[in-house]
Amino acid sequence: MTGTGDPATDADELDAALAETVRRTGASVGALYVLAPDEQLLCLELLCGVPAEFGAPWERVPLAAPAPVADAVREDRLVWVASQEEMARSYPRTAMVLPYPLALVAAPVTGVRRWGALLLMWPATRPPYMTGRERGHIASSCRRLARVLEEAVEHGWFPACGDRPRVVSTGGDRRFASPAMAAADFAERLPGGSCALDLEGRFVYVSSGACDLLGREAGQLLGTLPWQSLRWLDDPVYEDRYRAAVISREPVSFTVCRPPDRWLDLHLYPDASGISVRIVPSGAASPPSPAPRRSTSAATPASAGQLYQLTHLAAALTEVVGVQDVIDLVADQIMPAFGAQGLVLSTADAGRLRITGYRGYTSHTVARLDGLPLDTAFTPAGRALSSGIPAFFSDPEEMRRVYPEAPQVSGKQAWAFLPLIISGRPVGICVLSYDSPHEFPAEERAVMTSLAGLVAQALDRARLYDTKQELAQGLQQALLPRTLPAVTGLRVAARYLPATRGMDIGGDFYDLIRLGDTAAAAVIGDVQGHNVAAAALMGQVRTGVHAHATLGTAPDQVLSRTNRLLTDLGPDLFTSCLYAHLDFARRRATLANAGHPPPLLRLPDGDTRPVVVPPGPLLGIDPDAVYPLTEIPLTPGLMLAFYTDGLIETPGVDLDDSITHLAGHLADADDRDLDLLIDHLLRNARSVQRTDDIALLVLHHGAGR
């Protein structure tokens, strides 16, 4: 908590409110997230029912993340996940790092404003539904938490996003004052017990029989973690079984070999105060192969919590798209995961290190570090990148011995230089820094190094994606008209939208061609596909139509001659096209259609309907195709809307129904601003995820002609 007054009272009230919520709902785990001041990040403030380190992968959750607590706040709704299977379907990233049988609810904590989210978990044994009474309890608890937060703000205090979460007791997790009290608690949980662990995983009671089976005296075990005091249990698989018991609150069993060849069955029975463990000699036949030899290396393997954290971040890295996404992910999730306060992410470009993103540094410092040569001796970045070996400096003195000027640049006190290498090719370097000296244990170095490889892969993909996007957008802009010509008495607006999947490029096009003082031509078309080949052919079609139109060719002949051009080229891609000749002197519009959706006509009285234009074949199929002509009156106040099928095609919906749906929205639209009218049509399009690109051209014939 931060502020000028004593925060203890408000903190205690917040703790009590969460503890009461967990008790009232019967949840095994509870957590309170609060929004950071910028409202882009959720910070884990309180945790109940599990140790603080269990929440490490979720201490910082971006509000845009696909996670239950983020959805609850962002969408202001209660999120209920009834089972592990539903979690895998709805939140696959969360399921990867929480692979336990459980039920979960996330609810927004909202009062005068959005404060955060309440998270509750239950064992999977609870019913797979939530009653109205339970929803009411949770809603009232969220309101109470909101009131406590509001009172804290009034007193000048607020949870400080950045501190480690506080662990709250519900009153059931008793702390043992002596082995005798621990033994009594153990006996209540498991008759004839063997040993007991608290929720942190430490031995609090060991029977003499357990000492014999484990090969250790009680004094060597009490107060220690099993995977620390018993080296043959030092495997993330076994620690994971303990975590599964704590989180799911369900019994867990597994078999383990005590070297050299004694096999033991361990049965874990958890509750709110700890875990009772029954240890018995295994009744099953021993596996044929001996237990693997442990390495004599002094390096300590990563704990299960760190492995889950690495898995969580790896899953997040697979979802990033552009370079900025990579920078944001590293800053929002990887920095907090390792407790770092500074970040510099640089890419190798033309023999220099160009800083693409940073956090926790001043712009002046970044300017000094940007553009250093790859072989720089000013900082460890160059050597780490050229050798591919990470460099870790725990304090300024350690850095100063090798790089005397580097510590003075930023004022940081510890650094991790992580080279980003792909198949021996340097991509860049990620530097995590700390405001105070920081030791880097072997297991943390291992996790950081593994993560650097994943960041390198994500960054390389993101750079390629950004390059393709720039190429695609530049090509598309070059092929479509930059501006439409001014035609007296005619208002016009147009829009092109790429597909939501793909390269942001496609074969849809539109054009308006001025034909003297009394005529104009409007054209819209759709080349099959939305890739570079489609865009290239689209440019040829648009050029062909434009050339024939400016010669004064009739609409049917414009399409016929363009069709013969395409059949000669043989592009293996087909094109639909709708061409309209607008004759303002005769007040007639003449249309010809090559397999394109019909235009929409809105009359001055608001009556809106599709124009019946008999279609000819698609362009590029039959060199002798004929394209019938259709004439309509060009009356003042008339509006024509030309569009491509990306605007109306929706899986499972009849095309005629979609056109009618679009006509209804055109009839209701305000025509004073045609760009806003196009926005209205696009907002109400049935397809949200566009699998095809869209072109839209709207013409309004004013009364002034």
- What fraction, in percent, of the residue positions are helical? 25-40%
General form = elongated
Determine Rg (CA atoms, Å).
34 Å
Query: What is the mean pLDDT?
Result: 83
Please count the beta strands (DSSP E, at least 2 residues each).
29
Proportion of residues in extended strands: 25-35%
The major sheet is characterized as: 7 strands, mixed
Low-confidence segments, given as residue ranges, are 1-5, 284-302
In terms of structural class, how would the helical and strand content be classed? alpha+beta
The termini sit apart by: 70 Å
Layout of helices and strands, plus pairs?
Layout: H1 8-25, E1 29-35, E2 41-48, E3 60-62, H2 68-75, E4 79-81, H3 84-90, H4 92-97, E5 102-110, E6 114-123, H5 132-154, E7 166-168, H6 179-189, E8 195-197, E9 203-206, H7 208-214, H8 218-221, H9 226-229, H10 236-248, E10 252-258, E11 262-271, E12 274-281, H11 304-317, H12 323-337, E13 342-349, E14 352-359, H13 363-369, E15 372-373, H14 381-387, E16 391-393, H15 396-402, H16 406-410, E17 414-422, E18 425-434, H17 442-479, E19 490-497, E20 508-514, E21 519-527, H18 532-550, H19 555-569, E22 575-583, E23 588-594, E24 600-602, E25 608-610, E26 615-616, E27 629-633, E28 639-643, H20 655-668, H21 674-683, E29 694-701
Parallel strand pairs: 2-7, 23-26
Antiparallel strand pairs: 1-2, 1-6, 2-3, 4-5, 5-6, 8-9, 8-12, 10-11, 11-12, 13-14, 13-18, 14-15, 16-17, 17-18, 19-29, 20-21, 21-22, 22-23, 23-27, 24-25, 24-28, 28-29
